[in-house]
Structures are given as C-alpha cells and as structure tokens.
Amino acid sequence: MHKLEHIGIAVRNMDEGNALFARLLGSECYKIETVEAEGVKTSFFRVGEVKIELLEATRPDSPISKFLEKRGEGIHHLAFEVDNIYTAIEYYRRLGFEPLTSVPKKGADNKLICFLHPKTTQGVLIELCQSVTGS
Predict the structure, then answer these.
(1) Hey, CA dihedral for 20, 71, 69, 6, is it positive or negative?
(2) How far is CA 118 from the centre of its chain?
(3) Which residues are within 8 A (CB) of 117 and not within 5 positions of it... i.e. 6 or more apart?
(4) Which end of the chain is more exposed for a tag (fewer CB within 10 A), N or C?
(5) 48 near 5, Cβ under 8 Å?
C-alpha cells in the first residue's frame, strides 16, 4: 500500500482557509504555490507525516471552481505517494481504475500527479503523486 501523502481540501477563500487551519492546527502553512496550468492556488500544512493542502480556484473554468460550484467547500481528494507514477498509472489501469490522464502532469509541491476518476473509486477522487527533484 502507498503512503497517504496529503488530503486536498477545496476552499473558496485561501486567506480565510489558511487562518482557520492555522487556528485549528496551531501552526501556519509552510508553503503557498500557484499552479497556473490547473488554475489553482495551494497552501500546505504539516500534520504529523501527512499534509493538508488547501486549494483555491484562480479562474472560473478550473477543476476546483467546478468542484466548489457542484459540491461546495470540503475534502476534494486523497493523495498517495508512489515511487514511479508511470508504473502506478498502468498498474491501477490494469486493476480497472480509470486515470483521468494517461501521462502525469506537474502539480504543486514538486510532484508529478495523476488522478483516478471518482466513478471508479466509490466517489473519492484519488491522486497519485511522485516527488521530483530539481523542480
């Protein structure tokens, strides 16, 4: 089994989300980053060995914007660290899960990422992520 790397939470307002989670967790976020290609601004909090990633849409056509419209604020995805994302995508495809892309994309926090469609994971969006160096 892969290690839970982070839990993604969609928020409408990053400043309010950061303030709430700083109060809740007793520590400030350690990183804020924008991923232009995905239309998202992210912030990260450490909680033991797992991270919490807050996600705010930066444009109306982004996946986070669409998620917020449909479901409102809350848990967006669970992310699992994998050693080799290319191998993992094929592995999960063979098991009957549907990757949303056949090639991983660059994500936040120096990761290559790929999501598994929630219709194949009982409604939970699953992210596979691999740390990359030199990014």
Answers:
(1) positive
(2) 13
(3) 97, 98, 99, 100
(4) N
(5) no
Sign of CA pseudo-dihedral 110, 97, 58, 74 = negative
Per-residue pLDDT tens digits for 76-132: 999 999 999 999 999 999 999 999 998 999 999 999 999 999 999 999 999 999 999
How far lies 8's CA from each of 56, 91, 93, 96, in Å?
Answer: 10, 23, 23, 24
Write out the two tokens for 14.
């990053």
pLDDT tens digit sequence for 47-86: 999 999 999 999 999 999 999 999 999 999 999 999 999 9
User: Is this prediction's pTM over 0.90?
Assistant: yes
Structural Rg of the chain based on CA atoms: 14
